[in-house]
Amino acid sequence: MSNLGPLPDPLVDTEPAFTANGTVRHFGQVPAHTTALEWLRANGLTGAKEGCAEGECGACAILVAQTDRAGGARWAALTSCLIPMAALDGAELVTAEGLGTPEKLHPVQAAMAAAGGSQCGYCTPGFVCSMAAEFYRLDRQPPPDATSPGESEGAHPETGPNGFDLHALSGNLCRCTGYRPIRDAAFSLPMADDDPFSRRRLTSAPEFRPTFLERDDGIFIRATTLPQAVALLAENPGAVLLAGSTDWGVEVTIRARRAPLVIAIESIPELNVIHSDDTEIEIGAAVPLSEIAAVLGDRVPLLAQLIPQFASRLIRNRATLGGNLGTGSPIGDSPPALLALEAQIVLVSAMGERVLPLAEYFTGYRATLKRADELIKSVRIPLPYSNVTAFHKIAKRRFDDISSVAVAFSLHLDGGIITSAKIGLGGVAAIPLRAHATESLLTGQPWNRETIRHASATLEREGTPMDDHRAGSRYRSLMLSGALMKLYAQNSAAPEVSS
Predict the structure, then answer these.
(1) 424 CB contacts (<8 Å, ≥6 apart)?
(2) Which three-class secondary structure state does DSSP give residue 134?
(3) Could you tell me the residue ranges of all domains in the chain?
């Protein structure tokens, strides 16, 4: 294509290939924007179903081997409707057909059948794949005080006696079976045996490799080094950058968008760091959210509260902070939390790096200070953290939904006094923003009901909330006010906490 600039070495024309259910398969002469789901179904692997085509129902779930930071591999369940098949070049994937056969069912399939976990069966393969990913989770352990299914309903209502976390199924929807039989199947599973899928976890997943694919509908390139990526972007500033594809995938499937050039950057080492020292934590822009949660745990409490509310695990296994910030959306879940943490964003181009406070990054509706020749390299979160934090997401569904309002609090209390206050807001203006007026009002004041009531009236007026199909402006304002009162109610003993 004439608008494509010079290709950096070692990118050459390649024929993408991948291993599907143990067999090497080639991409073939199909369009560059073909999704993994489209390719699988066109090539006879019809277990994966198309339900919503935007990553919300889980009917299209598949398993993909991903390298973990210990050097082994894990089975991650992904939504195949959002991922370009070309992005799986070199990957190792398994569909529901590849787990077992009618003559020899996989333990997950057998448990679903025994519990009556399927009626129409449309959603079942997706449930099976998500369940299998949790079945093979290396650190799955029974809760210490749960010895039977009945006991698990008390202290651990979402964790079975076998250590199965029901949140693993949060992105899978069922319309006819009912969730109780599916839950029973999950909680009845044994610990994983020494089968081929278990043994596969002992060695790393296939490494990403440079990919170049040209078709009539566009060009797909995977850059595996940062110099490759920034050189391509310098010559082709209108290119679409792709890491998890959880946002771009919706543009392709629902809005039928096609890009002349897509540059996949998920395999670049500099974009996959999670580094910390005494002053900050740096998170690479292409690190999946589920991996951030696994590596950091509760070390950054505000992120630990945010990530479980970010879509579903199917999405979090691909979604990234870089992608969420790169869209510039005013309703993204991560910007409010990162604003409250006073995060910085690292941008890189062929001319070098620059670091911006995230509070200065957003300039208008889906507009940012990132130039067309730049990509997001990482996010830096300064230390230390405040001792009272919370992320409140107001949405029509608890999980796997877009927020009407998102509020992130980061307050530091010392001797019953609010010594600092940082509040990030989403969904109440054309951009994510800091609630500066409320922050000023809180700082230096005692942590008591009177202070909170006074500040809540100010927080209610922050931003310029609007009416849309998710919520009305008045509702959004009331949710802001209520969020601060809720924070106080949940931390009324916080004056006892000091630095």
Answers:
(1) 335, 336, 337, 338, 339, 340, 341, 406, 407, 408, 410, 432, 433, 434, 435
(2) helix
(3) 1-206, 269-382, 388-496
Mean pLDDT to the nearest integer, 296-300: 94
**CB-CB contact of 18 with 93 (8 Å):** yes
Who contacts 412 (Cβ-Cβ below 8 Å, separation ≥6)?
386, 387, 388, 418, 419, 420, 421, 499
Which of these, 55, 133, 121, lies nearest to 93 by C-alpha position?
A: 133
Question: Rounded mean pLDDT of 260-266?
Answer: 97
Instruction: Locate 260 and state its tokens.
Output: 């002349």
Assigned superfamily of 1-206: Beta-grasp domain (3.10.20.30)
What pLDDT, in 10s, does the model give residues 77-110?
999 999 999 999 999 999 999 999 999 999 999 9
Q: Are 278 and 284 in contact (CB under 8 A)?
A: no
Contact call for residues 129 and 112 (beta carbons, < 8 A): no
Tell me the DSSP string of 257-309.
Answer: ---SEEEE-TT-GGGG-EEE-SSEEEEETTSBHHHHHHHHTTSSHHHHHHGGG
Chain centre distance of CA 218: 26
Distances (CA, A) of 429 to 301, 331, 415, 465: 26, 9, 35, 6
Does the structural domain 269-382 have CATH classification 3.30.465.10?
A: yes
Strands 417-426 and 433-434: antiparallel
Predicted confidence band at 2 (pLDDT cuts at 50, 70, 90)? very low
pLDDT in tens, 169-198: 999 999 899 999 999 999 999 999 899 999
User: Does the CA dihedral 423-426-429-430 come out positive or negative?
Assistant: positive
What is the spatial distance between Cα 37 and Cα 264, in angstroms, rounded to a whole number? 18
Q: How far apart are CA 167 and CA 244, in angstroms?
A: 20
CATH for 388-496 is: 3.30.390.50
SS3 29: coil
Q: Which amino acid is at 273?
A: V
283, 381 in Cβ contact below 8 A?
Answer: yes
Q: What is the CA radius of gyration of the chain?
A: 23
Among the listed ranges 145-154, 177-186, 200-209, 470-479, which one has the minimum average pLDDT value? 145-154
